[in-house]
Structures
1.
Amino acid sequence: MRRALLTGSAATAVVVGTLTPALAQTDERRCSPTRENVPVCSTDGSVATATFLDPTVTVTGARHVGLGQRGYVGPFAELHATRHAPISVGASSNVQDNVLLDARGGSGIRVGDRVILAHGSSVRGSASVGIESSPLPPQVAGTVDTLEGSVFLSFGSEVDGATVEIDSGVSALARVAPGVTLPSGFLVLPGKNVTTDAEASDPALGKVRYLTQADVAFNEAVIHVNESLARAYTELYREDPGAVHGVNLDPGHTEFNPDADLPSFAGDEQARPDSRNRVIGDVDLADTYDRFTQRTGERIAIRADEGEPFVVGHVDEMDDDVVFHALEHTDVHVGDDVRYGEGAIVHGGGRVVVEGQPEEQTVVGDRVRLGDGSVVFRSTIGDGARIGDRSGVVGTDLPAGTVVPPDTIVLNGEVFGAVEW
C-alpha cells in the first residue's frame, strides 16, 4: 500500500513564458509547460496521456516548448528555448535527470517520438534527434527482427548542432559534432567524438558500430519504464501535490516498483519536501539528514523509483548535479567515505558474469573517488579506487585501489579508449 503522503509547497517548475498559439496549433497533442501546465502537462490531461515534469525542472521560453504525450522529464532537467529557437519533444520520449536541451544560439531543437535522453546528456544548438530516417544498412536490416523506431542518448553524451536519425544511438560520454548526421542503424561508441559524416556511417573508422537487437530491446524497456513513471508521478501529484517535492516518496504503482517508499536517514524514515535536492523512494542513507545536507551540493537526484533499494554509506563529499538511478529489478550499494565529483553518475544494472547465474549488482566500495562527470554503470568498484574526471566504467569489476585516468573509458574489464572531446 502507498504510505501516508506528506504535503509540502505547491508544485511548480521554474518556468518563464506563456503559451504561443502557433505552437499549440502545430500539433494538438503537444503541451507547452507554462505555469498552469506543470508539473502535469497538460494540467487537466488524462493520467494515461499526461506528461510529467519534476518540479525542479527549469524551462525558459516555455511558450516555445512543446511536449508530446506520455513523456517524463526528470529532476533538474533544463529546457531553454526562444522565439527563434523552439524546442519540441515527441510522444513517449523522456528527458532524464540533469539533461540539458539548449536551443539558444541555434534555430531550434526537434526531438521525435520514443527518444531516450539519459542522465546528464545534452542537445545543443540547431539539432534533430529521432526525426529523420534513412534506409538501414544491410548488416542491421538482416539481423534486427523488429524496429519500433527509437533513439538512445546515453549518460553524459552530447549532440551539438547535429542530426541523429531514428533507430540510432550515442553511447556514454560520446558526442556527435556540429553538422554531422548519424544515420539510422548506427550507434556511436563510448567516448568517441564523431566529427564527419564518414565517421558516422563507417564502422571501419572506429567511431560507430551497427545497431543490434539487444540495443532495440533495451530501448523498448526504458521507454516503457518512463511512460509508466509519467503516469505514476501524475497520480501521485494529484493525490498529494507535496509528495513530488524534495526528499519524498517514489510513486510506486508500477509492475517494476509496486510499493511507494520513503527514504531513510540513519535509520529514520522521513520526508523533507523542502529539501533543495531530490531523494526519492527506498534509499537507505547512513548519514542523518542534517549531516547529509551539510555534505552535499545542489541539483542532486537520488531516484529509487525504478530499481531499488539504494544503500548509501556515510558521504565524504557530494558535489552538485550528482545522479543515482538503477534499471528495473536492480539495486545500488555504495560504501563509506565516497567522494562524488560534480555531475557524477552512479547507475545500477545487472552484470552477467557467469551465464545462467544471477547477475552481479552495482557496488561502489569504501573511500572511492568519483571525478567530475564520471559514470559508473553495471560495475563493481573496489575500495579506494579513483575514477578520473569524465571517465566511464561500464560492465567492469574494478579492483581495489585502481586508478582510472581522466577521460578514459573502461568497458567490460578493458580500457576501451579515450573520451575524445
2.
Amino acid sequence: MKFVDEAIITVKSGDGGRGCTSFRRERYIEFGGPDGGDGGDGGHVILKIDQSKRTLFDYRRQKLLKAKNGESGQGKQKHGKNGKNCTITLPPGTIVSNADTNEIIVDLTDTEDEYIIARGGMGGRGNKRFASSTNRAPRYSQPGLPGIEIHLKLELKLLADVGLVGLPNAGKSTLISSISAARPKIADYPFTTLSPILGMVEPPFGEPFAVADIPGLIEGAHEGIGLGISFLKHIERTGILVHLIDVSQIDPESPLTSFNLINNELSKYSQSLAQKMQIVVLNKMDLPDTQEKADAFQNALKDIQVLTLSAATGKGVKDLVKLLSSKLTKS
C-alpha cells in the first residue's frame, strides 16, 4: 500500500427527515385528531482512530463521505428512523483542519478519540406536536433541518517516541530492522527509504516504544531538496532523536561536517525539532579503518556522549536500546 500522509475530503452529515401532516382516519371516528409522526434525525459524521491504520491511502480518491438522511415521519404517530452515521477511521496522529480556512479542528492522538465532525440535521416535528387547546387540527408540520457539509484537510504525523535522522545511506533502515519487527527495503545506495517506517521496540526492561525512520536528509532539505523534508513532520512529536552517522564517511580533517549539516537542516525546518534531545550514534563500525575516524569525531564533539555500533552485525545495538529505554522512562 502506498504511503499517503495528506488528503482533502468533503464530509456531509445527513438531513433531518420531514415531519408528517396526517389525521387519524378510522371507521366510526368522523373527526380524528392529528397523528403525524416526527422525522428522524440525520446521521452524524464521526472521526475515529483505528490503530491498524498507518496511512491516509483510503482517502486519496474517496473525496465525498456522507451520512444517511433521516426518514420522514408517517401517520399513526410513526416516527421516521434516524439516519445511519458515517464513521471515518483514521490513523493515530491525524490532524484534521478546515480546508477552506486552514483552522485546526481536532488532533487525533489518543487511541480512544472519537469526534463528531458534522452533526446530522434534526428531524422535523409532525403535526401531532402542534396540537393545542386552541388549535386541535394543525395542518402543518416541520421540514427536517439540513445536514452540514465541510471540506476537510487530513494531515498525518506519525506518533513515535524516537525518530531516526541522518544522511542517506547512514544505515537507518538497517538499524530499525535490527531493533524492531519493521522490515524496510535495505540497499547500499541513497534514498532506499522512500516513506516513513514505524517500528515497535521491546527493550529488556521498561515499556515498548515506537521508532520512526524517515528518508535521509541532504543539504538544502529545508528548501525541498531531496525526499526527507516532506517527512520531517513525522518526527515532530518524538521525544528523542537518534542522529545516525556513517563513520566510514567521516573526514578526520573535518569530522563534524555531516553532523552539522543535519542539525542545520533541522533548525531551518523547525527550531523545536532542532532542540530535541539527540543521541549521536556512529554506525558501520564493522568496516575497516573506522576507529580512527570515530576517535576524531568524538574528540571534535567533546562533551556530547557518542555511541558506536554496527547495525549490520548487531554489535552495540543492545546498548542503544537500553539507553533509549532509560531516557524515555525518565522523560
